[in-house]
Design the sequence.
């Protein structure tokens, strides 16, 4: 049930009365609801300050991906705001009717992601800091990709792991070795593509016409391979997706090695989120570059 201050604010912002509010899946962190109004249905995420702090970055990420020239579907951000007094923070998006994967779903998805990655900026970073899951993600603009990935991706996660007591002292030497060689392992100036940033299988859905819809982003401008790497970390993507992507925009040699470096960021992030179950993954990846 929506708190009255939240209902009043949303009705005022939408200029429409809420006829019904139904809880839906998809709110593992935030409350999630379908709003029926006399105008249109909407998807609503809401929560207290700890939850709602992620909404501005999510909204900005969705808008950045929507600005890219891609055939993928991106939910339209309608309204969002931080908490105010006893009114929770919220994020309102257009409602996406779910559908099924068609025969060429994966090919279209791969080609569409390559289209989105063609939308590039001048530097690596983003217009604001955002979140990867519930943990902060810094996006200070930088001109060197290896420096950005070291300082804005790996180093903050490592520091969080140290603070949580989850970092092992014997990981320091291989991490230092990785840092020393990072400029030789990663390209210095790949095109700064707009990336989803957290493209595991749980962060896309299929709409009513069978198009892939990107949701829950941790968007920034970075090396496009970070999205492909994350899509492989936990599986769930068909080989046709990768073949279509490579046909649309071939990868440079050495991707398999870079993939492990990019996914180290997500492994440490999961270590910080969920604990020791991800320690072996962190250790084995670091050892590869010792």
Sequence:
């Amino acid at each position: 049930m929506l708190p009255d201050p939240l209902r009043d604010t949303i009705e005022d912002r939408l200029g429409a009365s809420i006829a019904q509010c139904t809880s839906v899946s998809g709110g593992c962190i935030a409350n999630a609801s379908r709003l029926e109004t006399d105008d249109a249905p909407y998807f609503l995420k809401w929560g207290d300050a700890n939850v709602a702090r992620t909404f501005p970055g999510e909204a900005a990420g969705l808008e950045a991906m929507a600005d890219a020239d891609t055939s993928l579907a991106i939910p339209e951000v309608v309204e969002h705001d931080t908490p105010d007094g006893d009114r929770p923070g919220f994020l309102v998006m257009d409602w996406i009717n779910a559908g099924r994967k068609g025969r060429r779903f994966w090919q279209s998805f791969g080609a569409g992601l390559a289209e989105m990655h063609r939308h590039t900026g001048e530097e690596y970073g983003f217009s604001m800091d955002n979140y990867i899951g519930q943990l902060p993600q810094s996006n200070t603009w930088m001109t060197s990709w290896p420096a950005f990935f070291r300082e804005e991706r790996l180093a903050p996660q490592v520091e969080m792991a140290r603070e949580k007591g989850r970092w092992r002292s014997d990981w320091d030497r291989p991490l230092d070795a990785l840092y020393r060689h990072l400029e030789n392992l990663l390209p210095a100036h790949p095109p700064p593509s707009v990336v989803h940033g957290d493209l595991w299988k749980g962060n896309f859905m299929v709409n009513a016409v069978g198009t892939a819809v990107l949701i829950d982003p941790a968007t920034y401008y970075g090396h496009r391979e970070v999205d492909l790497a994350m899509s492989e970390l936990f599986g769930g993507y068909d080989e046709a997706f990768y073949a279509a992507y490579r046909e649309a925009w071939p990868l440079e040699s050495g991707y398999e090695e870079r993939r492990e470096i990019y996914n180290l960021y997500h492994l440490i992030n999961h270590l910080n989120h969920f604990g020791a179950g991800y320690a072996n993954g962190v250790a084995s990846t670091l050892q590869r570059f010792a």
About this structure: The chain has two domains: 4-94, 105-288. The radius of gyration is 20 Å. The chain has a mean pLDDT of 97.
